[in-house]
Specification:
This protein starts with a strand and ends with a strand. The protein is α/β, with parallel strands linked by helices. It has helices at residues 12-25, 71-77, and strands at 3-4, 9-10, 30-38, 42-49, 58-62, 65-69, 81-87, 90-96, 102-103, 109-111. It has a single domain (3-111), classed as Hypothetical Protein Aq_1857, Chain: A (Sandwich). Strand 7 and strand 8 (90-96) form a beta hairpin. Helix content is 19%, strand content 45%.
Length: 112
């Protein structure tokens, strides 16, 4: 059974962006964050819209938008928050991960 827990967080800015993208694509307002091996620093964040929550997911909800993280990925992002930032360099989802010992310049990968 999926759990609602304070182990992860979704900022209002990120929730608004997910809601807009999901509405455009006719999908539920659910963003999946997972961690894969690879990237410049050892692990990389992967984002995608989800249709449903899996039984092992931890769910954070902000303004009716859900952030889903599977059990294996949660071990690497516990305590993190997902934000949406816009700058001159572009716009992107950004993970503030207290477990990351270092990251890369692009912000898409990290090491523990």
């Amino acid at each position: 059974m999926a759990t609602l827990a304070p182990d992860i967080a979704l900022t209002p800015s990120a929730a608004a962006r997910v809601a807009a993208i999901a509405a455009r694509q006719g999908k539920p307002a659910m963003l999946r964050l997972s961690v894969d091996g690879g990237g410049c620093s050892g692990f990389q964040y992967k984002f995608g819209l989800a249709d449903t929550a899996d039984t092992d997911d931890t769910i954070a909800e902000t303004d009716g938008v859900r952030l889903l993280v599977d059990a294996m990925s949660l071990e690497l992002v516990r305590g993190a928050s997902v934000d949406f930032v816009e700058s001159l360099g572009g716009a992107a989802f950004k993970v503030e991960n207290p477990q990351a010992a270092s990251g890369c310049g692009c912000g898409a990968s990290f090491s523990v």
